[in-house]
Design a protein that fits this description.
- The structure is a single chain.
- Helix content is 4%, strand content 22%.
- It starts with a strand and ends in a 5-residue tail after the last strand.
- By secondary structure, the chain is mainly beta.
- The protein has a domain at 3-39 and 57-201 and 262-267: SH3 type barrels (Roll).
- A hairpin with a 2-residue loop joins strand 11 and strand 12 (171-175).
- The radius of gyration is 22 Å and the shape is globular.
- The chain has a 7-stranded antiparallel beta sheet with strand order 9-14-10-11-12-13-15, with no helix packed on it.
């Protein structure tokens, strides 16, 4: 995938860098696999803001993605690659031999016309979905389950993948994009390959208006607020208010905030490269 730059014909165009989507289908998404979702603008059921910086945005059709890949042993053909406004990765429309159609997250190097499968005995090939127990060491995988049969939960964003480092005593050790290691039951399934659209992080909106279309509102710096509104607010002129933190006062740099004792046993310290 390549990036697209424009001549600086206006201030908004000068900084604009977007993805080149010329290889994606221009057709509308499949109607039977889409539905509209209501916007919340970051408000809860009481109308109070619980997530800052959300609001506006273009109306979107949600595409139903097959994260479970539970159509075992049936060969599917990639019909086309599509853009999905609800995620950073591209998606692929799969047509199975029995006529059923499903959307999946498209990995890199997957092209229209390619054949994919899911199941314990399928070959290790990009786009195929199989249990971690059957995946060779060193393979890069995405759309990884954390519980058998629950569907892929991690490594679903653009350009992400985990590497299978070892297998032992019913678990596979994965090196996640963060460098952290995690033990996953080897009965859990994953898809071979790296998620497509790896240059998504290089996108530059160019102007505030394009960002507003993505449902993002401007956020005032904490230092520029009043003391009642933010832990870093207040002071005469510019003043440093200590360690960076959100309005809740919870530290977000230098202090670990993970608190999930139920899954602590599966998390391994960073794997040295």
């Amino acid at each position: 995938m390549s990036m697209k730059k424009y001549k600086p014909t206006s201030p908004g165009r000068r900084q604009l860098v977007i993805e080149d989507r010329s290889h994606l289908s221009k057709e509308r998404p499949l109607k039977s696999l889409t539905y509209y979702i209501d916007k919340s603008a970051g408000r809860n059921n009481l109308g109070r803001i619980t997530v800052r910086g959300q609001g506006g945005g273009h109306k979107r059709l949600y595409r139903k993605i097959d994260f479970k890949r539970d159509k075992l042993g049936v060969i599917g053909r990639i019909d086309r690659l599509e853009y999905d406004p609800n995620r950073s990765a591209n998606i692929a429309l799969v047509v199975y031999e029995d006529g059923e159609k499903r959307y999946i997250i498209a990995p890199q190097k997957l092209q229209p016309g390619d054949k994919i499968q899911a199941g314990p005995d399928v070959p290790v090939r990009v786009g195929n979905h199989l249990p971690i127990e059957r995946i060779p060491l060193g393979a890069f995988i995405h759309n990884i389950e954390l519980k058998p049969g629950h569907g892929g939960q991690i490594c679903r964003g653009a350009g992400t993948s985990a590497q299978l480092v070892s297998k032992d005593r019913g678990y596979g050790l994965l090196q996640l994009p963060s460098g952290q290691g995690r033990r996953v039951n080897w009965k859990c399934s994953a898809t071979i390959g790296i998620v497509s659209n790896s240059e998504h992080s290089n996108v530059s909106s160019g102007k505030a208006g394009r960002t507003r279309h993505l449902n993002r509102r401007p956020i005032t710096r904490g230092m520029a607020r009043n003391p009642v509104d933010h832990p870093l607010g207040g002071g005469e002129g510019r003043s440093k208010g200590g360690l960076p933190r959100p309005p809740s006062g919870r530290f977000n740099m230098g202090k670990k905030t993970r608190n999930n004792k139920r899954t602590d046993k599966f998390v391994v310290k960073k794997i040295q490269e």
